[in-house]
Specification:
Layout (H helix, E strand, L loop, with lengths): L1 H25 L28 H5 L14 H16 L4 H24 L13 H4 L8 H18 L7 H36 L9 H14 L2
Helix pairs in contact: 1-3, 1-4, 3-4, 4-8, 6-7, 7-8
C-alpha cells in the first residue's frame, strides 16, 4: 500500500513536469530553461506553492494570482487523471509500477503535444515499449497478424490522409499500438477512440481540426484496463 501511494503521488508530480515539457517544447524552449515556471499569460515567475500539482490550481481558485487570468483546467485535470490511473493500474511490485508510470507519462506527453500544437514527436513513441511488460500475454505477432495490421493501416491512411482526417502522427501511433496489441484489439482501440471524439465533432465548428491523439491515448488506457 505504501509503494502504491508513493507512485500515485509521483504520477501527479511527474504529470506536472511532463505538461511543462510539452508546453515549452511547443514554444521552442528547453524544458529546463527558464529555470522557474511562469504564468503563460503574464510571464511572471510562479511561487513554489503555485506549482503544487492540483493544489496550486485550487489555492488560486483557478486564476493566476498575479494577472487573474484563468488557468487552463487541463493542467490540474491531467494531473488528477494520471494519479487516478496510477491507482487503477498500479500493484505491489516496484518494476510493474515503474512501467505503468513511464507508460502513463508517455501517453500524457503525446496527448498534450497534439492537443496544444497538433504535433507528435516520433521519439516519444519509444515510451510505449513498457507495453511489452504490461500486457500479460504479449508475444511477437505472427506473420498473418502483421499482414492484416499493415493492410488495415494502409487502408486507413488511404481513406483519411487525402481528406485531412487522421494525420501521419496518428498513423505512427496506431502502428506501434497494432504491434503490441495485435490487429483485433488495435481495431477495437481505434473504434473506441472514434466514439470518444464523436461528441466533440458534434460540438466543434466545421473549420476546427480536432486533435485525435488524445482520444487514442485514452482509448489505449481503456483497452488495457478492460480487455480480457
Amino acid at each position: 500500500m505504501l509503494i502504491q501511494s508513493l507512485f500515485i503521488v509521483l504520477a501527479t508530480c511527474m504529470a506536472s513536469f511532463v505538461n511543462l515539457c510539452a508546453y515549452r517544447l511547443g514554444q521552442g524552449q528547453s524544458p529546463l530553461s527558464p529555470h522557474r515556471s511562469y504564468c503563460e499569460h503574464c510571464r511572471r515567475e510562479l511561487s513554489w506553492w503555485q506549482l503544487l500539482p492540483i493544489l496550486g490550481y485550487l489555492f488560486q481558485v483557478g486564476r493566476c494570482r498575479f494577472c487573474r487570468q484563468a488557468i487552463n483546467p487541463y493542467w490540474p485535470l491531467s494531473e488528477a487523471g494520471c494519479g487516478l490511473l496510477m491507482f487503477c493500474c498500479s500493484g505491489t511490485g516496484i518494476l510493474h509500477n515503474a512501467l505503468v508510470l513511464i507508460f502513463l507519462m508517455t501517453l500524457l506527453f503525446i496527448a498534450t503535444t497534439d492537443l496544444l500544437y497538433q504535433v507528435l514527436y516520433p521519439l516519444s513513441l519509444l515510451g510505449l515499449t513498457p507495453l511489452a511488460g504490461l500486457l500479460p500475454d504479449w508475444h511477437w505477432l505472427a506473420l498473418s497478424d502483421i499482414l492484416i495490421g499493415t493492410c488495415f493501416l494502409i487502408l486507413i491512411g488511404l481513406l483519411t490522409l487525402p481528406r485531412h482526417g487522421m494525420g501521419s502522427g496518428d498513423l505512427m501511433y496506431l502502428a506501434v499500438i497494432f504491434f503490441f496489441f495485435g490487429w483485433y484489439q488495435g481495431a477495437l482501440l481505434l473504434l473506441s477512440a472514434c466514439l470518444l471524439i464523436l461528441p466533440c465533432f458534434a460540438l466543434a465548428r466545421a473549420s476546427i481540426r480536432l486533435p485525435f491523439l488524445p482520444a487514442l491515448c485514452l482509448a489505449t488506457i481503456l483497452v488495457l484496463l478492460f480487455s480480457p
